[in-house]
Amino acid sequence: MKIARYSYQGAIAFGIVDEDELVVLASDPMFTGFDTTGDRVALADVKLLAPVIPRSKIVAVMSDQEFVLRPNTVVVGPGDVIVLPAASDRVEIDGQLAIIIGKIAKNVSAAGALSRVFGYTVATVVTAADLASATRAGAFDTFLPLGPVIETEFDEAATALRGLINDEEFQAVSLADDDRTTEETVSALVAFASSVFTLLPGDVILAGPMDTPADIVDGDTVSITIAGIGALVNPVVRPD
């Protein structure tokens, strides 16, 4: 099931994607379930937003048992601008799978970890590659586009990730063949993170770098697609 967070007629709402329409939900399904209002809206008539705004934290996996936290102010949605900061002359991107936590998790086992996951979405992980501090390098506003939707029944064994900059491919990964995105690895990531701090509903875990980053510059258009979830497209701007 695909869940969208969107803006329509000045209001923010949630809906279940049904072909070219959204079945309008009564509220945020992560907290209130999947009750519907009975209304439908056309996908073409709404603006898709970041499907989740983390209420607590974003856990960016760097390597085995190494991670940094990103603030929730890095998150933007489909079509939003990635702003290149004045503090960096070299900014790079990496398409990743994002894991969305749906239930409180503390010291959970790997066997029970997936029961705490609400779903999955596409992440464009942006990093100021020339800054020494990993925390600062990933903390700039707009440095984590998420979207276009959350897939609650994602099957990583049947899909692939593809990254484009201006229609030129820089990234092509079979998630079934990548040990960072298997069900076992996702379970282990959630379990490990929950052993360090309490994971709250809406928290995001970035599954880890795909080792194929690419530099971006002013005027680029970035597209990251995960089959079964969708395409996340964002323009890149360096302010004058």
UniProtKB/TrEMBL annotation:
Cross-referenced InterPro entries: FAH, Fumarylacetoacetase-like_C, Fumarylacetoacetase_C_sf, Rv2993c-like_N
One annotated GO molecular function: catalytic activity
One BP annotation, GO: small molecule metabolic process
Domain Rv2993c-like N-terminal: from-to ranges: 1-51
PANTHER family named among the record's database cross-references: FUMARYLACETOACETATE HYDROLASE DOMAIN-CONTAINING PROTEIN 2A, FUMARYLACETOACETATE HYDROLASE DOMAIN-CONTAINING PROTEIN 2A-RELATED
Family to which the UniProt record says this protein belongs: Belongs to the FAH family.
Protein's UniProt name: DUF2437 domain-containing protein
Taxonomy of the source species: Bacteria, Bacillati, Actinomycetota, Actinomycetes, Micrococcales
